[in-house]
Amino acid sequence: MSIWFALTWLVSINVLAFVLLKSRPMIIKSIIITISLVLVIYKTTEYVLQIASGNLSKIPVEFSAVTYILFGLTFLFSIKALKPFVTFAAFLSGFGYLIVFPFISDFLVTTNGFETTLVALVSHSLLYLGSLLVMKLELLPASTRKLIMIWTLLVVIYQIGMGFIIQFENEFLFIYIVLEGKAIIGLQEALPGIAVIIYIIYFIGIWTIYFFLASLFYLISQKIYHRYSIKELHQIKSTK
């Protein structure tokens, strides 16, 4: 995939999001349900088939892989307690992937193949679109950041547990690269006497950045809701 295709896709998805945000609530709800169905059915089928064939390394542990399932189930069954977290997770996974994709698309195609890369691109795009549409319909509570951190901790515990149970050595899993602190291994080896302290500082730094992203997401969600939903309500009232 060329960088121009990747950039065109990024722009197109954001234009589509802008158009959809102006749609009526019932249309947006239908789109969210459709996205949820597609993600749950496709990803569940993919994971089950892989696991049934004995490939346990396909058990979803990556942030986006977990989000596919949780996002779909949350909005199919209207699980209120999960909405702030899964909306954030979908936004972070989708937007993050779309931003870096133009720069790593060739690497991904070479490593994973064109079809797998295209499916991942579409899946992350659906997460991104879904999260934006949810932010228009749902005024996320003031406790959003707290809920995000709590659910994230539970997901991390699950990921750590899976890491002990299943061997993922041959898999490039970003979550374990972060949790294992591979970025600071060189520093720890150079300063073995304070290796533990270095890891603690590193982990606090990661957690702080994550909390900042959760806070930024909350502000964005408020902005989108008030810009589109409140404006729409005022327009409806003015026509009466």
TrEMBL record:
Task: Report the transmembrane regions from the record.
Answer: 27-49, 61-79, 85-104, 116-135, 147-166, 197-220
Keyword line: Membrane, Transmembrane, Transmembrane helix
What span is annotated as the signal peptide, if there is one?
none
What superkingdom does the record give? Bacteria
- Annotated protein name in UniProt: TIGR02206 family membrane protein
